[in-house]
Amino acid sequence: MNLPLSSFSRFRPDVQRLLIVSGLMSISFFGIQALLKVLYVLRLGHGPEFLGVFNASGAFSYMLASLPAGVLGERLGLLRAMRWGGFCVIVSMVMLPMTEMLPSSWQLAWPILSQVMGTVGWALFGINLVPAFMTASTPENRNNVYAFSAVLRSLGTLVGTVVGGVLPGLFASLLGETTGDPGPYRWGLWISALVSAIAVYFLFRIRELPNAGSTDSAQGNGRFPLGAVSLTVLHVYLINAAWATCQSFCNAYMDTDLRLSPAMIGLIVGMGQTVAVFVPLWTPRLAARHGNGWLLMVAGGATGVILLPLAFLHHALGAGIGSAGVVAMVGLWMPAFQVYQMEKMERHWRSLAYGISSMAMGLSFGTVSLIGGYFAARWGYTNLFLIGVVLAFTGSVLMWGILKRPAQIVALQKE
User: How far, in whole angstroms, is CA 331 from its chain's centroid?
Assistant: First the structure.
């Protein structure tokens, strides 16, 4: 591989601890919970319309919390903000499995409230994690650190997804229920809360991060480059919206249309995560040879190609190619984008710039989730995935235009 795993030992201790915490949170948040919460909501008797509102509520909450999360990171300190975010994530994971214990008048709103709490917490944690890596790393190993972050996120998601796929069957046998009942999923969600609690414990073992001002070359006091950031944010919106067609609805599609078992769904998603574990390992060398912007363009175009089998092949194989490909492209795109944006920003604008980009991510995911649920119910999942194809190619062409006209982009930077 182009990124030797042995280089982990050469990172600063603070970077190593941040990477481990990030991996544990990925097992819980992106793995076990991401798989089981959708299946749990469906077992409560809800359809794709409610699932769309459920996913959109989290996405819009993330969008609204993004800028305040960046501001709080500056005011409270990055680690303190991340700790509060981790606590909110744990609370949300405890809330969702309690839905059935509440009066019927609360059972519609409660899952939405848990989703809002969890995504607000993740905004506090995840948005401040990105500049924390920038602060703790050095310019020489920066691409490697962000690539490792993507690897551990994918590896954690893989482990969590596979475990999450097995847990319902395990708890069903222990409880004397079936995987069509909500009980086995409820207990699986408790496991995700436990893993998050372990991650937050280790987060408290990290000392305050040093000021990395001396390692950054961009220390000027220029105005915020709104024009250039706006073009980048539009690319972010389009690519993330394309991913959202699969990330919001692939599990529901496999469950309701393809009639796959929870274990099979977990296996398919887990296979995709296996691919995603290794994809970021190529990022540092590709970025050094072609640039991070080139990686963003390629990942966008590849996403459009990968979504085609998901749309046209009504089979577990098509679902596997689509879901695996999307998470692989996330693994390629995300570290490239984080370094691309962080390096182009003066240090005092980094939190704001990433907060705005995170708002775009949340808005794109929320828009697709909210509208996509109703769209899928009326016109089917195939047409929804085709919209993702169009969005991905459009985002790739936009980045191609940005890279082809660097002089104009520099002019926008100075406006």
Answer: 10
Query: What is the per-residue burial (b if ≥16 Cβ within 10 Å, else e) of 8-24?
Result: beebeebbbbbbbbbbb
Chain position carrying tokens 């950054």? 216
Measured CA to CA, the distance from residue 354 to residue 342 in angstroms comes to 8
Residue at token pair 């609360």: 106
Count of domains for the chain: 1
Q: Which two tokens stand for residue 27?
A: 């097992």
**Within-domain flag for 216:** no
Written as six digits, the tokens of 83 are 């700790």
Residue 112 belongs to a domain with what CATH number? 1.20.1250.20
Determine the Cα–Cα distance for residues 188 and 166; give it in Å rounded to an integer.
Answer: 9
In the structure, what pLDDT confidence band is assigned to residue 118 with cuts at 50, 70 and 90?
A: very high
Q: Quote the tokens at residue 183.
A: 């009980």
211 band by pLDDT with thresholds 50, 70 and 90? very low
| pTM for this prediction | 0.71
Residue 214 domain-assigned? no
Distances (CA, A) of 388 to 51, 231, 246, 252, 392: 18, 20, 8, 16, 6
**Residue given tokens 């274990």 in the structure block:** 263
CA distances from 147 to 8, 144, 344, 373 (A): 11, 5, 18, 33
Question: Domain range holding 96?
Answer: 13-208+223-414
Give the rounded distance of the alpha carbon of 176 from its chain centre.
35
How far apart, in whole angstroms, are the C-alpha atoms of residue 29 and residue 296?
Answer: 25
Q: Is residue 4 part of a domain?
A: no
What is the token pair recorded at 317?
């194989």
Quote the CA–CA distance of 104 and 92 in Å, as a whole number. 19
DSSP result, 65-117: HHHHHHHHHHHH-HHHHHHHHHHHHHHHHHHGGGGGGS-GGGTTHHHHHHHHH
pLDDT of residue 394: 92
**Residue 335: burial class (beta carbons within 10 Å; 0-12, 13-18, 19+):** buried
Q: Which residues lie closer than 8 Å to 144 by C-beta, 6 or more apart?
A: 3, 7, 11, 284
Q: What is the C-alpha end-to-end distance of the chain, expressed in Å?
A: 41
pLDDT of 64 over the 90 cut: no
Q: What crossing angle do the helices spanning 381-404 and 350-379 adopt, rounded to 10°?
A: 150
Which of 242, 254, 258, 246 minimizes the C-alpha distance to 322?
246
The answer to whether residue 213 sits within a structural domain is no
